[in-house]
Amino acid sequence: MYKITVIPGDGIGPEVIQAALHVLDALPIEFDFQEARAGNSCFEDTGTTIPDETIKMAKNSDATLFGAVTTVPGQKSAIITLRKELDLYANLRPVKSYPGAKSVYNDLDLLIVRENSEGLYSGIEEYTLEGATALRVITRKASEKITKIAFQEAYKRGNSRLTAVHKANVLKKTDGIFRESFWDVANEYSRLDGYRNIEVDEVYVDAAAMFLITKPHRFQVIVTTNLFGDILSDEGAGLVGGLGMVPSANIGDHNGLFEPVHGSAPDIAGKNMANPTAMILSVVLMLQFLGENHEASKLEKAVLNVLREGTSITPDLGGTSTTMDMAQAVKDNYQKI
Ligand code: NAI
Ligand code: MG
Asked: Which of 42, 243, 313, 326 best tests ligand 1's pocket when mutated (most atoms within 8 Å of CB)?
């Protein structure tokens, strides 16, 4: 029995969470789901976007499923607080083509490993006389940790190339440290069995943004700092059918939190038309994290079949189905596999 904290959040968050739980119901695994609150509606009711209770529940769970929250400027970010409190220092964002989604390329399968605990997301900003400044915190420790995770992911995927993305020519000190840490770890790993064959290289972030569009196949696993990873993974989402398609995993040494890359999408909230794929694929990542690899691949296959058939897909994919229709189709398909 796995204890899972479920945080629906705001906007389409509760809609895609409901869809994911509907699908999870078909799995032969016992889950104890415990709902917790976060986000803007939580703030309106309780005065905080992220109650201590929610953090405590997530810490004491085997995994957490997070829908999406609406972030109002000035409010504390629920998701960034959770990432910090649970020390979820790695954000894994697969960019994978699925049939039926309007992809620029139909054969992409790369992974963006984003540092999740520091960088420009440290949120240390200050007004100055002229405007404002932001502090970009980069430590050797976090840079080494994220590079190790990236190596392990490259190894698991049987991939042959790991690329560091940075801007060390301009951000000489911060990205200088990130770059140095990356090569230190690379030297260490190049001596380990199994890792020797992983080719290692580096690309500046601006060039990486272009290559993702013109030559995405040159990338297999990318490791980068927090904000660059955030931006490049949305670009990656654009390559494989949009934000409705892309899941993510936030991983630390003790906890895992799984969420779609998209936000609360207020423009389509309440219309039952959100694409549940990103959330369901986040469940696939959660199952892998829990070691339930068999069910994970079955569920991924069910999503793939529904996308390929193309008869039960949401409007963003060119269909007319509702969120729950699509979830039902995935569930039916899963039960047939
Ligand atoms: P967004 O990801 O919510 O939406 C961007 C566009 O993609 C919208 O046109 C939306 O309709 C579409 N879209 C997103 N998910 C979709 C889905 N599952 N199916 C179909 N279409 C989908 O980003 P936006 O508009 O910049 O932010 C909206 C709110 O979400 C803001 O308050 C923002 O702060 C918050 N946000 C929260 C995140 C989180 O909870 N981790 C991440 C990103 C944004
Ligand atoms: Mg983003």
From this structure: 243
